Amino acid sequence: MSALDVARIQADFPILKRQVHGKRLVYLDSASSSEKPIQVLDAMDRIYRESYANVHRGVYTIAEESTATYEGARAKMARLLGAGSPNEIVFTKNVTEAINLVAYSWARTNLREGDAVVVTEMEHHANIVPWQILAAERGVELRWIPLGNDYLLDLTSLDELLDGAKLLAVTAASNVLGTLNDIRPLADAAHAAGALVLVDAAQAVPHMPVDVAAWDADFVGFTGHKMLGPSGIGGLWARPELLDAMPPFLGGGGMIRDVTKAGFLPDDVPWKFEAGTPPIAEAAGLSAAIDYLEGIGLDAVRAHERALTAYALAALRDRFDDRLTIYGPDDLDARGGTVSFLFGDIHAHDISQVVDEEGVCVRPGHHCAKPLMRVLGVPATTRASFYVYNDEADVDVLVRALARAEQFFGI
Ligand SMILES: Cc1ncc(COP(=O)(O)O)c(C=O)c1O
Questions:
Q1: 309 lines ligand 1 (CB under 6 A)
Q2: What's the 3-state SS for the chain?
Q3: Is the Cβ atom of 30 under 6 angstroms away from ligand 1?
Q4: Looking at residues 62-87, what average pLDDT do you find?
């Protein structure tokens, strides 16, 4: 029995009513981007129809309404993450930009040649490439926490890796393996070594309760489109003293207190990091997405996905045995609802195409984690990922579609 009333939730997602190839749409690609409930669509439509205006500029009624919606989204996001104040949230266009903000503003101010940044082998490119750019530019060393055989981080050499490091940049949940990393002990070890901790929470915030204080993190990035919100908005939470000390990243309108020919004075945090017209309707959508998730309860979201993942792992193993290899932890407490696999020697793209004919959306490829693919020794996997609108019937359709692929390719 699921912790959620999935049928009721499904009814809120217009896209789930459509068919592809004459079949019910079974969307199993939420790790890439989630679908959106009518409440989010309505909130965005409403702001454009009723109170759209630029924010932080006009003093007329609808401009003030627009600003209140935008700042209200910040306050909701702060509450969702357990932040001390709304001003600890900087809106960006996605988590990639949030991590780049830290890399350009904080890291370029504080890191010198010979300093080290520690990442892990299971990071998304968003939490690798910004550090590689920095490493190439500044002579900063990049160190890697390896993946263990159990698909968890191998922390045997953690203290050595952190020795002399300035930053540990780690994902809370792998978008390929589903692995959930236990952030608090990692943060404790990093702090003991004098390093700060950046958490890529792109795959955590949508799926479970997150508390930046309980993590004792320094920077946490999130992205709206994976948490039922629209694309075009994400953000960074950071400790206020860090944000205060960081220089602006992008310059322009909206981020200044004064500008003369001689120079500029930046605005206060967080606006000093939000140059240009921000994602206004997107903030309204994100706000509605947070309401929707809180209405369900993030504990219930996690419990639902844990149960559905247990069902999926058992169903896949039962039906396909060792013809199907799953890349991810067996321990349900250490994994989320992302299931990556290889099926015989069929290429992941071929699998995806065949199951699409049954209406099933799964993602083939390297999932923007090429260093991890190299560690796993595979060019690509097929990934099914679950969210609040998926149920056991969806898993059953996936299993039947894979059985059809098996027949088709004659494994
Ligand atoms: C763990 C992780 N980090 C970062 C990203 C990048 O997200 P965005 O494209 O929204 O910046 C993703 C998206 O797949 C992800 O799964």
A1: no
A2: CCCCCHHHHHHCCHHHHCEECCEECEECECCCCCCCCHHHHHHHHHHHHHHCCCCCCCCCHHHHHHHHHHHHHHHHHHHHHCCCCHHHEEEECCHHHHHHHHHHHHHHHHCCCCCEEEEECCCCHHHCHHHHHHHHHHCCEEEEECECCCCCECCCCHHHHHCCEEEEEEECECCCCCEECCHHHHHHHHHHCCCEEEEECCCCCCCCCCCHHHHCCCEEEEEHHHCCCCCCCEEEEECHHHHHHCCCCCCCCCCEEEEECCEEEECCCCHHHCCCCCCHHHHHHHHHHHHHHHHHCHHHHHHHHHHHHHHHHHHHHHHHHHHEEEECCCCHHHECCEEEEEECCECHHHHHHHHHCCCEECEEECCCCHHHHHHHCCCCEEEEECCCCCCHHHHHHHHHHHHHHHHHHCC
A3: no
A4: 97
Q: Is 119 in contact with 170 (CB distance < 8 Å)?
A: yes
Predicted TM-score (pTM) above 0.90: yes
CB of 119 shorter than 6 A to ligand 1 = no
What pLDDT, in 10s, does the model give residues 189-208? 999 999 999 999 999 999 99
Each residue's pLDDT tens digit, 313-354: 999 999 999 999 999 999 999 999 999 999 999 999 999 999
What is the Cα Rg of the chain in Å? 22
Does 410 score more than 90 pLDDT?
no
Question: What contacts 122, CB < 8 A, 6 or more positions away?
Answer: 147, 153, 171, 174, 176, 177, 179, 369, 372
Question: 324 - beta bridge partners?
Answer: 343
Which residue's CA is the closest to the ligand 1 atom numbered 12? 202
Active site residues: 368
**Pocket test residue of 223, 231, 335, 372 for ligand 1, highest count of atoms within 8 A of CB:** 223
| Cβ of 336 less than 6 Å from ligand 1 | no
Ligand 1 atom at shortest distance from the alpha carbon of 234: 10
Q: What is d(CA 348, CA 344) in angstroms, rounded to the nearest whole number?
A: 10
Centroid of ligand 1 to alpha carbon of 274 (angstroms): 20
